[in-house]
Amino acid sequence: MEKDNLAVVLHAQGDLRLEQRPIPEPGPNDVLLQMHSVGICGSDVHYWQYGKIGDFTVKKPMVLGHEAAGRVVKVGSAVVHLQVGDRVAVEPGVPREMDEFFKSGRYNLSPTIFFCATPPDDGNLCRYYKHSASFCYKLPDNVTFEEGALIEPLSVAIHACRRASISLGTTVLICGSGPIGMVCLLVAKAMGASQAVITDLSPERLAMAKELGADFVLTVNRGDRAQDLAQRVEGLLGAQPQVTIECTGVESSIQTAIYATRSGGVVVLVGLGSDTVTVPLINAAVREVDIRGVFRYCNTWPMAIAMLASGKVNVKPLVTHRFPLEQAVQAFETTRQGQGVKVMLKCDQNDQDP
Predict the structure, then answer these.
(1) Domain 6-150+315-346 maps to which CATH number in 1.10.1740.10, 3.60.15.10, 3.40.50.300, 3.90.180.10?
(2) Domain residue limits, the chain
C-alpha cells in the first residue's frame, strides 16, 4: 500500500489545507477503505466559511467530507460480511453506544453518535479512511462509486419522504432545488407522488429539476409574499399539496410551506437556517397541518441502494463538476460560488472514473 494519505483538513474558519495524515489501522470491527468518490456538501462549505454549524464548532483540525464511497483494502479480524476488493458506500453516522435511540431504531438522534466531518469527528475526504464495517454497504456491480457517494444526500430525501408519509398519489411541494431538493424530488416520485412542484431562485436549477421529473417549477424572487407564493402553488396543482418538503431553511420559505400545505397535510423541515424563525404557527394549528423535523437519516442505505440498482432513481445528472483530490480547494470554491449542483472529488489517483 502506498504511503500517501492526502487529506482535506479544516484548521479553522477559512483555513482549508491539503496535508498528509497517517494511514489508520482498522480495529476488529472496522474496514480500511481506499476512498474513491467524495461529494462536497453544503455543510462542508459552511464549516469552511464560518467555522461552526449551530452548536458544532471547529476547535481542532478536522478532515472534511461525509458523502463517500470507496474500496475495501483491509478488513478487521471480526468482520465477516465484507472482504478486500469490495466496493462500498459509507454511512457516516455510527452510534457509539446502545442507548434508547439505538434500541428504538432512531440512532440518528443519539447525542453521542459519531458523524463524519462534524466536530470533533474527522470525515473521509482523504485517500484512506477507517470506518465501522457495519456502516459500510456493498455496492452492486451496476452502481458506480459516485452513485454510492450520492447515497448520503439521497438518504436525507428518503428519511424526509418517510417522515412525510409520501405514498401513491401524494401531491408534493418542494421548496428549494439545490442538491437536497433535487433528491427529494427524485425520491418523492419514486415513492409514488403523482404531482410535484419545486421552487427556487435559480432558473438553471429549476430547468434541471424539470428534466428530473418535476411536474411544475416555480421561480421565486426575494421579497415575494409567502401567501402569494402559496396561492401560485395551488394554481399550478389545482389544489393545495398534501405534503411540503422545505429544503432551504429560509424563514420566508418555511412560511410559504405552511401556508401552501393542505389542511390535514404535512410540512417536513429539512433545510437548516437560523435557530429561531417567525412562522404562522396558529395557521398550521387550526388547519391541523403537522410540522415534522428531519435530522439526517437512519436505516436508509439498503433502500437507496435498491432504488439505484433497479433504476427507479437516477442521481447521475446531479454530478456537474469533478476534481482530483489535489484540487480540493478549487472544488470547494466552485461549490461556494453555487456553480452546478454536486461537486465530486476523486480520491484515487489511479481511478478517476465515476
Answers:
(1) 3.90.180.10
(2) 6-150+315-346, 155-293
- Could you tell me where the beta strands, DSSP code E, fall in 180-249? 195-200, 216-219, 243-246
Q: Coil, strand, or helix at residue 114?
A: strand
Number of H helices, E strands in the chain: 11, 20
Per the CB < 8 A criterion, the answer to whether 263 and 288 are in contact is: yes
Q: Could you tell me the CATH superfamily of domain 155-293?
A: NAD(P)-binding Rossmann-like Domain (3.40.50.720)
Largest CA-CA distance found in the chain, in angstroms, rounded: 63
* 28 contacts 78 by C-beta, under 8 angstroms: yes
Listed in sequence order, the residues at least 6 apart from 300 whose beta carbon sits closer than 8 Å to its beta carbon are: 151, 154, 155, 158, 159
pLDDT in tens, 100-119: 999 999 999 999 999 999 99
Tell me phi and psi for residue 41, to 5 degrees: -100, 155
Please choose, from the candidates 352, 261, 350, 341, the residue with its C-alpha nearest in 3D space to the C-alpha of residue 42: 341
Q: What is the pLDDT of residues 141-174, one digit of tens each?
A: 999 999 999 999 999 999 999 999 999 999 999 9
Alpha-carbon gap, residue 83 to 186, rounded angstroms: 32
Q: Please say whether the beta carbons of 37 and 321 come within 8 A.
A: no
Q: What is the pTM of this model?
A: 0.96
For the sheet with 171-175, list strands across it. 216-219, 195-200, 171-175, 243-246, 266-269, 290-293
